[in-house]
Each structure stands twice: as structure tokens, then as C-alpha cells.
Amino acid sequence: MSDTPKHTGRASQEQITYANMLFYGCWGGLALMALTYLLYVTGIVTPHVPLEKVPLLWSQPVGTYLELGKVPHGWGWTVLIAKGDFLNFLGIVLLAGMTILCYIPLIPAFLKRGEKGFALMALAEILVLLFAASGIVGGGAH
Questions:
Q1: Burial class of residue 36 (count of CB atoms within 10 Å of its CB; 0-12, 13-18, 19+)
Q2: Of the candidates 32, 33, 70, 36, the residue with the CA atom closest to the CA atom of residue 50
Q3: Which of 26, 39, 117, 136 is 20 to 30 A distant from 1 in Cα terms?
Q4: Contact, 84 vs 33, CB < 8 A?
Q5: 116-134 vs 89-103: helix axis angle to the nearest 10?
Q6: In 1-142, which ranges are continuous DSSP H helix?
Q7: Do residues 122 and 129 make contact, with C-beta atoms less than 8 angstroms apart?
Q8: Could you tell me the pTM of the whole model?
Q9: pLDDT higher for 6 or 122?
């Protein structure tokens, strides 16, 4: 007899938790993007770059757009989150961050089952993704 665990074909509770969080988080992110876009295009929330200037600025190189639109680099957009054209970034951030959020409940679940290696891998995944998103290394988050 082998000590290899038998697979039942059923998802573990951790997999179900991850999948449920990802499912609802993605739909929530899409809904948030739609709502904030409507707030932007209807003018309910004032944009940082006026709508009538957008076609002119979009035809320019990105550096010119950022300069003329007075748009900050990197994570600087967060100071403009109350503006209509930056408010829709919230849904994008939610979608982009869902993997990180989904890994968080896995750590205590793995520790409860005594699977310290998996808990450490989940924590490492969270830290790597946060580090990558931070823009510290200059490869992204611009």
C-alpha cells in the first residue's frame, strides 16, 4: 500500500474560498468600474482633465499628456482619486489586487492544518506581488 493521498476529485475548502473570493471580487471590480465610469462621463464627479481636452491630450506622446494634463507619475494618481477620471482606477486596482486578497485567508487555513510550507508560499506570493506593484524596482507600477 502506498502512502500517497487519494484524490477525491473534490476541491478543498481553501480552493473554494479562493474561487469564491475571486469570482465575487472580479464581478465587484467590473461593477465598480462601470459605476465610476458613469460618474465620470455624466459629470457627476468632476474630472482632473476636462473631457473636452482629452481627445487633444490623448493624441500626444504620454510624456506630453502627463505634463499638459498635470497628471502625476506612478502611484501619484492616488492623490487625485476624488476626480472622475481617476476614480475609475479603484475598480482596476480591485481587479489587479484580487490575487493578493484571495491568498490572505489561505495562510491561516494552511497553518490550522499544519501545512507551514504552503502558508509560507502563500505569504511569499503576497509579498512578491506587493513588492512588484510598489514600483520600487522600476519595472512596473508606472
A1: buried
A2: 70
A3: 117
A4: no
A5: 160
A6: 13-41, 54-58, 62-68, 84-87, 89-103, 106-112, 116-134
A7: no
A8: 0.76
A9: 122
